[in-house]
Amino acid sequence: MRGVTTTSVRRSDRSSRPAFRCTECGWTAGKWVGRCGECQSWGSVVEDTGPGGGAPRTTAVAPTRAPARPISEIDVESARARPTGVDELDRVLGGGIVPGAVVLLAGEPGVGKSTLLLDVAARAARTGRRVLYITGEESAAQVRLRAERISALDDRLMLADETDLATVLGHIEQVDPDLLVLDSVQTIASSAVEGTAGGVAQVREVTSAVIQAAKSRDLPVVLVGHVTKDGSVAGPRTLEHLVDVVCQFEGDRHSRLRMLRATKNRYGPTDEVGCFDLSESGIVGLADPSGLFVSRSQHHVPGTCVTVTLEGRRPLATEVQALVAPSAVPNPRRTTSGVDSSRVAMVLAVLQRRVGARLADQDVYVSTVGGARVVEPAADLALALAAISSRENAPMPPGLVAVGEVGLAGEIRTVTGVGRRLAEAARLGFTHAIVPAGALDGATPPAGLTVLFAHDLAEAVVAVGIGR
Predict the structure, then answer these.
(1) CA quadruple 341, 344, 346, 352: dihedral, nearest 10
(2) What is the C-alpha to C-alpha distance for residues 439 and 414, in angstroms, rounded to an integer?
(3) Which of 12, 56, 240, 305 could hold 385 in an S-S bridge, CB 3.0 to 4.6 Å?
């Protein structure tokens, strides 16, 4: 009897102990751990004391600030987006920045986030708006030097280098800006919260305070955020849920092209892409970036084929180049740049098995022009035609684009947005296009563009005149 009593007491003590819960995904543990066992996030497991004992608390009724009104009487002018002056940024945001909206701009270090936002801040200041640019990454003198280099100087652009949250809020009270840029949210810390700047608790506190200030003042805010090694936004996942818009700024260090995408947007689309050209003199938007991905050689050489990819809803003409050469080693090389190596291997296998192209003893090198990254299956047909063109040493017909997905049986499958792709090809001056059979569904092709249809890869090779 005494043992039963002791066991029951131990169980009662064990059940009354506080558990630990992950603030990111809700995973619980009996003891504290540094890393969540469910979402694998570091520093997110905190003590969870539960709702506590006693009678449930009741919330007192508070007076309303304004009575509820019919939805048809709500004024929507204050919620309309205001253009930033950068057309490519406005395209991604859905027309501009909405007053009171908080935009998170994330990207790798050195990709050009600060340069883009400094240009946006200067353009907004030139329209008569007061802009407050707070930098925690660099000193004010360093930002001034960059502003001189990209011609972003204006007296209405206020600059401060601060890392304390209370001081940042004080600058907002003093300047009363029409636009706030905070670079970056991981460098600001609050003295009321434990932990270093950039930690989970600090990032959450800083973001919550800035959002409260933005909503109370109808102040549009742009936050700069770092990304982790896997490309996701650094800090707690709740950071992405707190803000209104999350944008990713991407680009290769060896290329001048930069792309801006919206992964979350409460006020606009999430399938638009903005293109920018980053140089020493600044950053400019590219309304027509297709020319960057197509070579301007006057001579038609074997092994090249142009396709039209879709970046969100934006069609981009991209040239795929292939080089097939006899191999001097037992295991031929398969080298790729800008394309998926697994899809290249699959397309080469289909060419050898279904078309009869001898590639098993050949080195194959596949690349894109201008540092473009092609990942969608719609480029399979162009990749296959470029490879067979190089293997047969026969150039593709001039003015030809190819769009289609290649299956393991050799069939060519249709892809989405064929009409938009062909319209872009016709606008760029292409005269012929080869697409999967039935891709247009009876629709009329663009004027000046002759469309060839192919059911399988062998038929496409014969249609372009590079087969044996």
Answers:
(1) -140
(2) 6
(3) 305
The reply to whether 327 sits in an annotated binding site is no
Rounded CA-CA distance 366/291 in Å is: 20
**Which SS3 state, helix, strand or coil, does residue 148 take?**
helix
What distance in Å separates the CA atoms of residue 349 and residue 258, rounded to the nearest whole number?
Answer: 34
Is 205 annotated among the ligand-binding residues? no
User: Judging by DSSP bridges, how do beta strands 257-265 and 157-161 pair with one another?
Assistant: unpaired
CA angle 30, 36, 40 (to 5 degrees): 160
Q: What is the pLDDT of residues 45-85, one digit of tens each?
A: 888 755 444 455 677 888 887 889 899 888 888 788 999 98
Find the farthest-apart pair of alpha carbons in the chain and give their distance in angstroms, rounded. Answer: 97
Residue 18 confidence (pLDDT) = 53
442 is in an annotated binding site: no
Position 384 scores a pLDDT of 97
Q: Any binding-site annotation on 107? A: yes
d(CA 18, CA 84): 50
Taking the domains of the chain in order of start, what are their residue ranges?
Answer: 18-48, 80-287, 292-463
**Cα separation of the two ends of the chain:** 93
108 is in an annotated binding site: yes
Three-state SS letters, 318-347:
EEEEEEEEECCCCCCCEEEECECHHHHHHH
Question: For the structural domain made of 80-287, what CATH number should be given?
Answer: 3.40.50.300
404 is in an annotated binding site: no
Closest CA to 101 of 247, 227, 274, 238: 247
**Is the backbone peptide bond immediately before 184 cis, with ω within 30 degrees of 0?**
yes
| CB-CB contact of 306 with 430 (8 Å) | yes
Q: Is the pLDDT of residue 452 over 70?
A: yes
**CA 288: distance to chain centroid?**
19
- The kind and range of the H/E element at 369 are none
- Hey, is 124 helix, strand or coil? helix
Beta bridge partners of 19: 48
Residues forming beta bridges with residue 401, ordered by sequence position: 306, 433
- Which tokens is 373 given? 């990254």
Cα separation, 378 vs 306, in Å, equals 11
Measure the CA–CA gap between 386 and 305, rounded to whole angstroms. 5
The answer to the question of whether 419 is labelled as a binding residue is no
The verdict on whether residue 111 carries a ligand-binding annotation is yes
The dotted CATH code for 292-463 is: 3.30.230.10
